[in-house]
From TrEMBL:
NCBIfam families: HTH_metalloreg. This is HTH arsR-type domain-containing protein. SUPFAM superfamilies: Winged helix' DNA-binding domain. One of its GO terms (molecular function) is DNA-binding transcription factor activity. It holds the Pfam family HTH_5. The keyword Transcription applies. The keyword Transmembrane helix does not apply. Keywords: DNA-binding, Transcription, Transcription regulation. It comes from the Bacteria. It comes from Amycolatopsis japonica. PANTHER family: ARSENICAL RESISTANCE OPERON REPRESSOR ARSR-RELATED.
Length: 117
């Protein structure tokens, strides 16, 4: 399957496939941030942040605003924040389901385990 739409969608999700980029988008979902604020929160090297912001700019997910020598970033659309919230909800559901399975597994193996008797 080589549909341009599916290819573009896959590329979009690849853009989201880095923890620093996800965290940057989460922070920007709250409010615009200066680069110095992002650096302080993320605890990464400026070059690394610059690289991640460039990826997000190329994907048109963030936009820079320059005020003198200060640069801040904002999301290009509130839909980005909505997408992150939906993803967090899905992940929460998946993890909750896995914890339920783990509890069931531990309950059933605990009763049958040689260590329990």
């Amino acid at each position: 399957m080589n549909s341009p739409l599916y290819q573009a969608t896959a590329e979009f999700f690849k853009t989201l496939g880095h923890p620093v980029r996800i965290r940057v988008l989460e922070l920007l979902s709250e409010r615009d941030h200066h680069v110095s604020e992002l650096l302080a929160d993320l605890g990464i090297e400026p070059a690394n942040l610059s690289q991640q912001l460039a990826v997000l700019r190329r994907a048109n997910l963030v936009v820079p605003h320059k005020d003198g020598t200060t640069v801040s970033y904002s999301l290009t659309s509130p839909s980005v924040a909505e997408l992150l919230a939906v993803a967090r909800g899905i992940l929460t559901g998946v993890i909750t389901g896995q914890l339920g399975l783990l509890d069931d597994l531990q309950s059933s193996t605990g009763a049958d385990s040689p260590e329990s008797g």
